[in-house]
Amino acid sequence: MSGTAYTIDFADEDCRDARQVGGKAAGLADMTAAGLPVAPGFVVNAAAYREFLSRDGLREFASSVADELGQTHDRARFDAAARRLEERFAAAELPAEVAAEVRARYRQLGETLGVPDVAVAVRSSATAEDSVGASFAGEFETWVDVVGEDSVVEHVARCYRSVFSARVMSYLAEKRISPEAIEMAVVVQKTVRARAAGVMFTLSPTSGDRSKVAIEASWGLGLSVVGGEVTPDRFLVDKVGLAIVERTLGTKEIEYRRGDATVPVPEERRNVPCLDDDEITSLAELGKRLEKMHGAAQDLEFALDEDLPPGRNAILLQCRPETVWSGVERKPVFDATAGMMSWITGSISGAPAGGSAVGHQHEARAS
C-alpha cells in the first residue's frame, strides 16, 4: 500500500511534499529517505482535512466565526468563539472514505511490525507549520499511546478540531494569518518506548552560537521536556570534534512512561544524567547531518528507545527549521568597511569591529 487518496507512507516520495503533508511529516519523510533512524508510520494528508471540512457546512461555519472575530485581541471573544466551534465540531466525524483508509493503513503498520493494535503517536502536521517566518511549534496537539483503529480515527478528528481552538485562533490573529490558510495533515507514528527523550538545536538557543549543538533531555517520553514540566539535563557540544563542553543536570522529578500520565522519578535517578557521553555525541552527529542536509540550523525532537541496543537506540521524532535565530543577520567577523586596523584592535579587545562589545540574547523557546 503506497500513497493513496488520503494516506501516505513516510517512505513514499509524495510524503516529502509539505504542501500535502505539512512540515512535520515532510521532515520525517526526508529523514526516512536519508536512511536516518525514524519510527515508522504514515500521514493522513491535507486532502483528507479538506474533505472533512467540506461536509455538513463545517468550512462555512468556521469561516463565519473567524470573520466575526476580525482583528480583535479580546481573549473572552476568542474563548466564546472556540466554544461555538467546539460544539459544532464535536459531533463531526471523519468522512467514511477517509476513516476507512486510516483504519487500513493502521492495520498495515501493525502487520509490518508484527504488533496488532500497535501503540502510536497521533501528531498534527499543519501545512503552514514550522516555516522560518512563523513557527506553530506547541500550538497544535499531540497524543501518544493511542491504541486501536477506532481511537486512531477519533484522534485524527481531534487534530482537525485543534485548528479552531482558542489558543490557535489567538495565535493566528497575532500573526495575521487566516484560519483558512491552515490545512491540517496528521502523522500516525509508532510510539517509541523511550528510556529518555528531549529536544536538540544545532546552535545554542540562548546565544545563537552556530558552532554548538544544544541538547535538553529527561527520563521517559519527551512530553515532560516539550511541555516544560521538568528541569531537563542540558548539554552543549562543540560541532568540531564533538567535545561536550557544558553539562547541567536537571532535577527530573517526573517522567511519562506512557502518554496518559506522569509518574515520579525514583530519587536515585533524579541526579543521574539521562544520557551517557556516547549517546550525547551520537545525537550531536545526527544533528550535524540534518543541518548539512537542510542547509540551515535545525530544531529536533528525539528519543532513546529502551527496546533497542546501545548505538542503535536514538530515534528522531521531528525535524524543523530553527526559528528564533534564523532571522538574525549574521555579521562577518571581518568588516571590510571598517579597515584592517579596526579588525585587529577589535579582536584584541573582544569587541566586534565597528560596533559595541555588548551583545543581545534571545530567550530559548519552550519546546
Automatic annotation (TrEMBL):
What EC number(s) does its UniProt record assign? 2.7.9.2
User: SUPFAM superfamilies, alphabetically?
Assistant: Glutathione synthetase ATP-binding domain-like
Q: What is the reaction catalyzed?
A: pyruvate + ATP + H2O = phosphoenolpyruvate + AMP + phosphate + 2 H(+)
Q: Which residues form the Pyruvate phosphate dikinase AMP/ATP-binding domain?
A: 20-331
What Pfam family does this protein match (any one)? PPDK_N
Q: In which pathway does it act?
A: Carbohydrate biosynthesis; gluconeogenesis
Q: What class of enzyme is it?
A: transferase
Cofactor requirements of the protein: Mg(2+)
Q: What does this protein do?
A: Catalyzes the phosphorylation of pyruvate to phosphoenolpyruvate.
Family membership noted in the UniProt record: Belongs to the PEP-utilizing enzyme family.
Q: What is this protein called?
A: Phosphoenolpyruvate synthase
